[in-house]
């Protein structure tokens, strides 16, 4: 079967296609069609010839099979050190074989590649830290995901996600009207307790343009309100754009590079339109990576930088505490043991570990590091889109064991996790393993302990 009705090589770019996928609960028809999906070997060979260039081919050739990458991989550790979970094996048996066979592979092979690319690697890039040659299997598996997507071998949820980005410029079906209404609703809901609170939309020349994860307005609108209150208390001049407000990229997880470009250009257009001094990204790791680190290249910006200077939320919080824009009440600092989850995407891949420690020095009296930590920390267990893929839920749950053991070793009962994927993984970890922990973003934590200036105090009834 060259093409299925739902599982095919086409991008999802109309609401009709998207709704058809959404109606297929758990992807039952989608995965049934995938079993018969033909591989376009000529197109795959042409793509490899055109895009698998010197860096990737050199990495495949120079791998010494030394095994030093093995212990760097949490999938390997969580699966009883299964040799088939060694990063070098995983990439050589997938991309390496594709290159050797010049794209002449079949359906069974592509199923194996899909399973490996999405359930045995979260593209956390930790392996590159320990490879003596600097080979980065995370980067390579990102490339492999793109090959799979073009052939139609991509998890159902991520095919939906990339379609959402093409249609709504967001990972969920939130329209501009929905977004603006949510901003107005949250401002009205919280204004009574916080005099003068606003969520300014499309304010030009603000100091900060704030962008979010679509899950916030869809499922956690209070997160937007909490961000507004903290900007309000800090005296910031800020705004949100009516269009281009969504930072995340399920398209990046899916390997749909065309949708990645569409998504990130919508954010950059908002920057160009509103001319803020800088952008602040919400508490999301992959959103930061997609828009700030990878995005400029998808958009073809020769500078390799976003149109305006861009910060992750932890950078803004550290700055606000350091400069006194936000002040912590010493009596309200965290007294119990607390630890911090270093997100792969803004700590290992963007070097923001110091910001995290600076924040913890202000808010916690008994801060306990995970071991290892900072850029050496393990992935939460659900990165790279793995949290949201039902087909691979058991593989994700097994992978969570490494993070479980890291947290248990600290003795902490509270985990600060300023990243949506990390927050979700740690929540699910507790549901699966019941180790007796709590988890939190920064915003509610800060609101529970920040000093409120007299003129901004909530009004009594």
TrEMBL record:
Residues 110-135 form the 4Fe-4S ferredoxin-type domain. Keywords: 4Fe-4S, Electron transport, Iron, Iron-sulfur, Metal-binding, Transport. Pfam families: CCG, Fer4_8. One of its GO terms (molecular function) is oxidoreductase activity. NCBIfam families: sulf_resp_HmcF. This is 4Fe-4S ferredoxin-type domain-containing protein.
